[in-house]
Predict the structure.
Amino acid sequence: MRRRPHRHIRRVHKKFGSALITVNPEIPQTQRRAIILAHYQDLRKDLKREGRARVSDFGIFKVKRSKARPARKGMNPFTKKEQMFKAKPASRKIKFFPAQALKEEIQ
């Protein structure tokens, strides 16, 4: 079963992010979108190469690694029957740690 995101949390996509750049209204939207895309690519490169990426006054993105888990026997709590749970491979996930300035701004 897929978890639904919270209703009050808005996902920021590239198209939405390009509309947020309002530093200079004379910049066309295509150039704003290119700026956002360049930032995404820089973040990806830093995360791949170093395992972390820092955005000033915003926060730090870090790559967290989880270990592989073997298959195991367990009990289904609803039917009380034994069953096998699948093995999970090792994975990498990106975690975000907000900067102190961002935390203070929100509160």
The chain has two domains: 8-50, 52-107. Residues 8-50 form one domain.
